[in-house]
Write a structure and sequence with these properties.
- The complex is a heterodimer of chains A (712) and B (411).
- Chain A is of the alpha/beta class.
- Chain A folds into three domains: 239 residues, no CATH class; 150 residues; 271 residues, Spore Coat Polysaccharide Biosynthesis Protein SpsA, Chain A (Alpha-Beta Complex), CATH 3.90.550.10.
- Chain A has 19 helices and 32 strands.
- In chain A, strands 21, 22, 23, 24, 25, 26, 27, 28, 31 and 32 form a ten-stranded mixed beta sheet that branches. Chain A has a five-stranded mixed beta sheet with strand order 1-4-3-2-5, with helices on both faces.
- The two termini of chain A are 52 Å apart.
- In chain B, helix 7 packs parallel to helix 9 and helix 7 packs across helix 13.
- Helices cover 36% and strands 17% of the residues of chain B.
- Chain B has two domains: 227 residues, Rossmann fold, CATH 3.40.50; 158 residues, Glycogen Phosphorylase B (Rossmann fold).
- Chain B is globular, with a radius of gyration of 22 Å.
- The longest helix of chain B is centred in the N-terminal third of the chain and has 15 residues.
- The chains are: A alpha/beta (712), B alpha/beta (411).
- At the A-B interface, helix 2 and helix 3 of A face strand 3, helix 2, helix 3 and helix 5 of B.
């Protein structure tokens, strides 16, 4: 038994020695994604904090530091060492920065750094006097903070030792192995004494020390210095190492698996694959897709992006296995296959280190253009938010664009009139209800989706307003599910409320942009007022101040919109870079939720970025000149920010008149659309598209990210 | 004009705890006062009230009562909705620009809020009214151990032994974290000397803690019962929970000699025992069902019912097993001129003077309570004597005056 074991181990060691050491690739390279929440480096020392699952410890460390005078605060670098909570950390960091008013950096490596990586990272910072701490220790970095309650927790060393070149002493608490490091030679400490001073959380049932230091192959060069580590790991790692040995010894059934959860053929674009890879011991050498035209192979890794796989991450975290994100998303363009993507099945070859190969046959589902296909596609994976820009561009942009835009192809373009002749889809149904006046001044365009019963409330709230005499009402029915009912009730609505209106039905769901553009094409007024179906008057006469504000270089006028309790829903829109989404700019509503009476007529934070199209007044000439709202945004989101950005580029301004007050019961009309998950992904896509379209404008406002190379 | 923002963990329209009622009553008084521009912010956790990206909803026509979508972790009272705390709350503070921010709790609000307020308003005065021992004790803030013993002080090791789910360092970190954020508070207000002493022993500077009793509204006073009646009526008011000592009361009552018992009645006002898991609810129900006919269960009541209910009793019994701070029921009893029979510990022993306006008995001891009841029934003159000794509790106006002097920095 022992003989077999030793033989396996010897063989494993031999293979380890031969192989390059991918395990030790430094994930904390200078181009590692990071968020920088400080533009000034505190003089003096730098603290590197290893953040694991217990993010409350990071928070506690920040709270302690925020209580110190600014001059005495070290510069903090928080390294995310737990892949499963990396995105959470990125999101929380932004809030912590504002709550505690402490500057820091968050490094978000793709792979969790091993202690040796952290050591070498600190060494690179050594000339700035860095010290590596676990969050718990960061709390106690001043000896006088340590009191009775701390001492009883079995610890021998409570004071971290500051780094100086050539002499690093690292204590990583919290399930991370203790690492003692000296230049030239390793100094061994007894396990008990060197053990982490404060190990948080209940101890796992079985802590089994493995002295990897006795495996000479793992003594490697890091940062030009010899590093030797002693790892205390949970059972899972022992199992994995055993599995590794078995694998290297050439036993059958390698403990690795490739799971494909989505395989879509996108017309004219290519093949979209999403799935996960379980490979704790790096047994897989290559994953290849078979090309049927010539029998050749396509290396999947040339096309994929690795993404988090939350379920697997949690599973692996239980076993303390450091690993890269285990999901993948790959868009293989049609050109890689030759002329056409393989259907109805795809052959996927998984090639292992020992050159064995396993073939999987995967059904390919073709996606037909349409909004449902967009939803299906976006629901099939979780995105890489840390590298969102690149991820969207590489994997998601083309398929979504193709699936969303195709049904709208040949649509009547704005300004081109509705009789282009190339319209291959069904024509608009147009009902004119009641006697429409001649030459209206303003055309109010209201797309209706979902709750059409709001029309009643809306008409009743605008009916008596004498300032709305010479307006034209255009309702665009954007929801086939309610078409029959709504068309049938139109005459009755007119009879009760006395408002004449045009009902436009394009016979499918175009989204907010498409519906507004259809409405604008049918409008007769010189001014357009885009309005949501859940906007209601607070009092009469609201349109006058909006009309008054539309002069000179002001091309668009928004209103102050209120919730039913008079909390502010909209008082202007601002652009704000959002670190956790790769610094994409999001649109925020400054003052949202505040009591209306508290907010000054001119918002303090300059709205700058524009106004919501829930109630937006423009000149028809400007609107048509810009080609209307951009219809590339799926369903609706960000198209108004985009319109205002294009106006701004044309040298025109958007303003908000606080005198025009209306209710906007936000999202009440589209409640049914807000289905879990997919909507979030749709927002993410629209946000990315918005940023791409206005990139030139907002690049300058990206406050957070600093040039990565600067660190060196 | 002094601009005051009162922050509470809940709005009394949705929950009836003593702390939120006290906070709201203070706000109501200040709202009417000419020298104050008062605002009220109360946390809520109703998903239906929440609106995407908006932290606040508005409760009152004048827009001064604002609901804040926030909750906290129960262990260290760290705010759950970080974005609202980090960005929306400062925006509100910027618009209100209060001179004084008076917190009436940190549960649901989040202890980090003190720092956010301090960062946003460096010169504002920050006050915190303490209502129980939550910062000290993670067990409902009662300093009552899981083994039923009274707890004298928190210590990470002792807390771990009491609640072994977490190791001692977690309790240590919790205490550090809360204290570190409490350092932003200028003045603490404690409704009782006892609570003040506990927080001072825990580590807050005693000179920063002021004792101000939560005032009582001046509304209808229940008339005295006919003193000629030969039958004395005892009443228990409030939620029936395991810590309120109702089982002690029921046991004591059952032990009364039958003849003595015929000369008295015991009324239980309040409910809530059904919400407790395990055998507690069943035990109470059985004790009530099997109890003597002199025991009457009157069930839950609304605050406005209290004078009517109080009118039917001569004595109020407060047999709590935990320390209590300044129980509202004692103040209510005194406002209606009812002497109080209470456990001889903590806030109860402080607020009720033995032999002056009430009687003490050994906490948790049915025999002691039984003999006290016997003594009272056998000596009907005691009721008049103790009634004469009752000093009326402070009114809300008196409390507000004291708070205002703190707001202005007079003390």
């Amino acid at each position: 038994m022992f003989a077999v074991y030793h033989a396996l181990r010897a063989r494993a060691l031999a293979m380890l020695r031969r192989r390059a050491t991918p395990v030790w690739d430094d994930p904390l390279h200078p181009h590692c994604p990071r968020l920088v929440y400080s533009d000034q480096r505190a003089p003096g020392r730098i603290w590197v904090i290893a953040a694991h699952e217990r993010q409350d410890l990071v928070r506690a460390a920040l709270a302690e530091l925020s209580g110190r005078p600014r001059a005495q605060r070290p510069h903090l670098i928080i390294v995310a060492c737990d892949p499963a909570s990396r995105e959470d950390l990125a999101i929380r960091a932004q809030d912590w920065r504002s709550i505690f008013d402490v500057g820091f950096e968050v490094w978000l490596p793709d792979e969790p750094p091993a202690p040796a990586h952290l050591a070498s990272f600190c060494l690179r910072l050594t000339h700035r006097n860095a010290v590596l701490l676990s969050p718990a220790e960061a709390l106690f970095a001043q000896p006088d903070w340590v009191d009775d309650a701390f001492r009883f927790s079995h610890c021998s060393s409570t004071q971290p030792i500051e780094c100086s070149p050539g002499d690093v002493n690292l204590n990583l608490a919290d399930r991370v192995p203790v690492l003692v490091w000296r230049q030239g030679a390793a100094t061994e400490r007894s396990g008990a004494a060197a053990f982490s001073p404060v190990r948080m959380g209940p101890a796992p049932a079985a802590w089994a020390p493995i002295t990897i230091a006795r495996l000479p192959a793992l003594t490697s060069q890091v940062g030009g210095f010899r590093v030797q580590g002693w790892l205390y790991r949970h059972q899972g790692l022992i199992l994995d190492i055993a599995a590794w040995m078995l694998l290297l010894a050439g036993l059958p059934r390698p403990p690795a698996n490739v799971e494909v959860t989505a395989c879509f053929a996108i017309p004219d674009v290519g093949l979209f694959l999403a799935g996960s890879i379980i490979d704790p011991v790096r047994a897989i050498k290559r994953i290849a897709v078979k090309r049927w035209s010539d029998g050749g192979e396509i290396d999947l890794s040339a096309f994929w992006s690795r993404v988090p796989e939350p379920k697997l991450d949690r599973l692996y975290r239980q076993y303390h296995v450091p690993q890269s994100p285990r999901g993948f998303v790959a868009l293989i363009p049609i050109s890689a296959f030759g002329t056409t993507v393989p259907t109805p099945v795809l052959d996927l070859d998984v090639l292992y280190q020992d050159n064995r190969c396993r073939r999987r046959r995967i059904p390919v589902s073709p996606l037909t253009p349409g909004v449902e296909s967009v939803r299906t596609l976006l629901a099939a994976f979780s995105p890489d938010r840390i590298r969102l820009r690149e991820f969207m561009l590489r994997q998601v942009a083309q398929p979504v664009e193709r699936l969303w835009r195709a049904p709208n192809q040949g649509r009547p373009r704005l300004g081109a009139g509705s009789d282009t002749g190339s319209d291959t889809v069904r024509p608009d149904v147009v009902c004119r209800i009641g006697a429409l006046g001649d030459a209206p001044r303003v055309s109010i365009i209201i797309p209706v989706y979902g709750r059409w019963d709001f029309m009643r409330y809306q008409m009743e709230s605008f009916r008596k307003d004498s300032s709305l005499r010479d307006v034209e009402w255009i309702y665009v029915l954007d929801d086939p599910r309610i078409a029959t009912e709504m068309i049938a009730s139109a005459e009755a609505l007119h009879a009760v409320f006395g408002i004449a209106f045009t009902l436009l039905y394009p016979q499918r769901n175009l989204g907010f942009s498409g519906a507004c553009n259809r409405g604008a094409a049918a409008a007769r007024g010189d001014l357009l007022l885009l309005m949501n179906s859940d906007v209601f008057a607070v009092g009469d006469g609201w349109i006058e101040p909006m009309l008054d504000a539309l002069h000179d270089d002001v091309a668009a006028v928004g209103a102050r919109l209120l919730y039913e309790d008079h909390a502010v829903q909209h008082a202007g829109v601002a652009l704000e870079p959002f670190g956790p989404w790769d610094d994409l700019c999001i649109l925020t509503h400054p003052g949202k939720g505040l009591p209306d009476r508290l907010l000054p007529a001119v918002p303090r934070a300059s709205a700058g970025a524009g106004a919501t199209a829930a109630c937006l007044l423009l000149r028809r000439a400007d609107y048509e000149g810009l080609g209307g709202l951009c219809e590339d945004f799926v369903i609706g989101d960000f198209e108004d920010g985009d319109l205002c950005a294009r106006l701004r580029r044309a040298g025109q301004r958007t303003v908000i008149t606080a005198e025009a007050r209306l209710y906007h019961l936000e999202r009440q009309s589209i409640g049914s659309m807000n289905e879990a998950g997919q909507h979030g992904m749709l927002t993410l896509y629209n946000c990315w598209l918005f940023n791409r379209r206005i990139d030139a404008d907002v690049r300058g406002c990206s406050l957070h990210r600093q040039a990565a190379a600067k660190a060196d | 004009m002094l601009r005051v923002l009162i922050i509470a963990h809940a709005h009394p329209d949705f929950s009836h705890g003593g702390a939120e009622i006290a906070a709201y009553q203070l706000f109501e008084h200040l709202r009417k006062s000419a020298e104050c521009d008062a605002w009220f912010l109360a946390c809520h956790q109703h998903p239906g009230f929440a609106r995407p990206g908006a932290a606040f909803a508005i409760r009152s026509k004048d827009q001064r009562e604002i609901l804040y979508d926030q909750s906290t972790d129960y262990f260290d009272f760290s705010a759950s909705n970080l974005r609202f705390l980090a960005f929306d709350l400062p925006a509100l503070l910027r618009e209100i620009r209060p001179d004084v921010v008076h917190f009436h709790h940190y549960v649901n609000v989040g202890v980090e809020t003190f720092r956010v307020v301090r960062n946003e308003l460096p010169t504002a005065r920050i006050l915190l009214t303490l209502h129980e021992f939550l910062a000290i004790c993670n067990r409902q803030g009662q300093m009552l151990k899981t083994n039923g013993r009274l707890c004298e002080r928190a210590h990470p090791q002792d807390c771990h032994l009491c609640m072994p789910e977490r190791p001692p360092p977690d309790y240590f970190l919790r205490e550090r974290y809360i204290k570190s954020l409490f350092s932003e508070v200028d003045h603490f207000i404690s409704p009782s000397e006892f609570l003040k002493a506990r927080y001072a022993a825990w580590g807050l500077a005693a000179e920063r803690i002021f004792v101000i009793e939560n005032g009582q509204p001046a509304d209808v006073i229940a008339p005295r019962r006919d003193s000629g009646s030969a039958i004395q009526v005892f009443g228990h008011f409030g939620q029936i929970t395991p810590y309120k000592g109702v089982d002690v009361l029921l046991a004591a009552f059952a032990r009364l000699p039958a003849r003595t018992r015929q000369r008295c009645r015991l009324q239980l006002h309040g409910g809530g025992h059904h919400g407790f898991p395990g055998t507690f609810a069943r035990r109470i129900e059985q004790a009530i069902a099997a109890g003597p006919q002199e025991l009457i269960y009157r069930g839950p009541y609304q605050p406005q019912d209290l004078p009517r209910r109080m009118a039917g009793v001569d004595w109020v019994i407060v047999p709590s097993l935990w320390w209590e701070n300044s129980p509202m029921v004692i103040q209510e009893a005194f406002r209606h001129g009812r002497p109080v029979i209470c456990s001889n510990i903590g806030g109860m022993a402080e607020k009720v003077r033995d032999g002056v306006d009430g009687v003490h008995f050994a906490v948790g001891d049915p025999d002691a309570l039984c003999s006290v009841l016997c003594r009272i029934i056998d000596n009907p003159a005691l009721l008049d004597q103790l009634q004469a000794g009752i000093a009326p509790p402070p009114t809300i106006a008196a409390t507000a005056r004291q708070c205002l002097s703190l707001y202005r920095g007079d003390r």
